[in-house]
């Protein structure tokens, strides 16, 4: 009984593989599929931009910033670094500077901004791009 099923299966599979291809389908165009990586670009053809302009963006950071939370003397600097995603949202917010309280407050002030950016582009495609904003705070 097992041999009958085996022979029957072989005969059917020969019939399936022996079929000819219909005319006109033997030359299909080559399909190039490229996987979009979640790569973060630092150099793009069209830079990410804040919809109301960079001056308005800086004003929003200043408005959200609470100077009384920062402890320090003289001049403090930090650099805000974040990723503008394809949908315009900001992710991966970091602050690099020597004053930890300044860094924390800068991250908090930036995180409060809910406007979406216009993402950067390469070859007309929206891409993730890294953006840097320098901040300076002078103590009196």
Automatic annotation (TrEMBL):
One annotated GO biological process: transmembrane transport
Signal peptide residues on this chain, from the entry's feature table: 1-18
SUPFAM superfamilies: TolA/TonB C-terminal domain (SSF74653)
Keywords recorded for this protein, A-Z: Signal
Domain TonB C-terminal intervals: 77-135
Protein name per Swiss-Prot or TrEMBL: Protein TonB
